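Weekly modeling sync, notes
Attendees: S.R. (lead), two postdocs, one rotation student

Agenda item 3: backlog of single-chain predictions. S.R. asked that every request posted to the team notebook include the full sequence so nobody has to chase files. The rotation student volunteered to paste the first one in as an example of the format we agreed on. Action items at the bottom.

Example entry:
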Amino acid sequence: MKTNYSDFTLIGMETTERSQIYTQYQFPGSIDDEMPQKGSCLVLGNEVTGVDTEIMPLLDAIVEIPMFGQKNSLNIAACAPVVMYECLRQWGVMGKTEMS
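Predicted structure, as returned to the notebook:
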């Protein structure tokens, strides 16, 4: 699988000992076509079971959204846009007034 997507960094969203907070991770990629970079591919799992254990060793990085209190996971519909927004923010999309 990894060799099929060598132009992408595979990033899992999961709470593990290996995870880092998503805002502290530099997501590879760019919106600049003149300077192509390796892209980011987010891998999300089931809210209850998480990312499949067979996929975990294939990931280049694992990020998590910090949770406080008793809950240790968010619905995929809630967490995916949070992390995708951070990717776009890092890539400078959020400062653009016009997107082509």
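Discussion: group reviewed the output briefly. The chain is about 15% helix and 20% strand.
Action items: rotation student to repeat for the remaining queue; S.R. to check formatting next week.
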